[in-house]
Amino acid sequence: MPDYDDTTELQLCFNKTHFQRSDFNVERFVNLARKRVTLDQLQNDLRIYLRHLQNSMVELINDDYADFVNLSSGLAALRDSVEKVSSDVRANWTSFTTSIAEIEKCSDAIEQNLSSLGRCQKLQICQGDKLALLQSIQNLCAFVEERAADDEPTRKVRANSLWYSKLALLISAVEFWSSRVKSEHIQPTVLNMKIECYRKISEFLLDALKREIFDHSKECDNLSVLVALIKTINANELAICRILNGLVEKKIVVIGAVEGQKLDNLLENALRQIIEVRKSCSERAKRNAQFTREVVIFIDTCLLNFVSSFLEEAYSITDFESNLNFGV
């Protein structure tokens, strides 16, 4: 109820605020009203005020009901909207999961195809490398066979720097493709072809190397190339043995040539002649820019091996003569 006095609006004979007091008393209210009006007038005003209260309550209930109806309608519409949105979300999610599943299937299929394609590509590259290796070996063999078919005068003309350069390129190609397929299974016929071809090449290179080192009338035009090629085809040990045999054949040191010659004199003689051989070879190589680091290492290795072999032989002879003298 409002706190203001609206008696003037209703033209009542009493103050409505009396009903709002906590200490309201009917007898006291009636006694106060009888001082101004009669009981009939008081009764009539009370009925008017009662109707007023009833009408106010009806209006309040109607207003609240209208708000309730509007609120209920709004809630119903909101619920319908929420259900529609939820339905759309579920439908979209279902469509999304279906699309994701299809995409995953496509992705798996693509990945499998890529893996298969990668394996095929690796196999293709491997087969291509094997074919390239076979072709490079065939080219090298044809080059070597053509060289072997030439007669001696032609051989002297063709065995020059250009020929060695071509040979180096062909050997490099074989070594390159061999390194590409070294972990793969290669047919024995191909390997045997390579081994046989390298054997022929090594024989020719070793003979040429021997001439380069021991032929003092010949300039060392291709010494560095020969050493490099021999190293490439893994024929270093054979080359060292060939040079050692050449030193023995040239009779640089003749053990026991002079009866009673001391071991020290033999060593000095051997070292002197070995130094002369190295000096002669180095001078001829330097004139043609052939005295490279690889050549120095190779020549020194050969000479050191020769000295080592000479010492072993010299000491064994000395021990043998000592044993004979001791026995006598």
Automatic annotation (TrEMBL):
Which keywords describe this protein according to UniProt? Golgi apparatus, Membrane, Protein transport, Transport
* Record GO cellular component, one term: Golgi membrane
Q: Where is the Conserved oligomeric Golgi complex subunit 2 N-terminal domain?
A: 12-85
Q: Where is the signal peptide?
A: none
How this chain sits in the membrane, per its record, is: Peripheral membrane protein
**One Pfam entry name:** COG2_N
Give the matching InterPro entries: COG2 (IPR009316), COG_su2_N (IPR024602)
Which cell locations does it reside in? Golgi apparatus membrane
Question: Which GO biological process categories is it annotated with?
Answer: protein transport
Instruction: Please give the family membership noted in the entry.
Output: Belongs to the COG2 family.
Provide the protein name.
Conserved oligomeric Golgi complex subunit 2
Q: Which lineage is the organism of this entry classified under, starting from the top rank?
A: Eukaryota, Metazoa, Ecdysozoa, Nematoda, Chromadorea
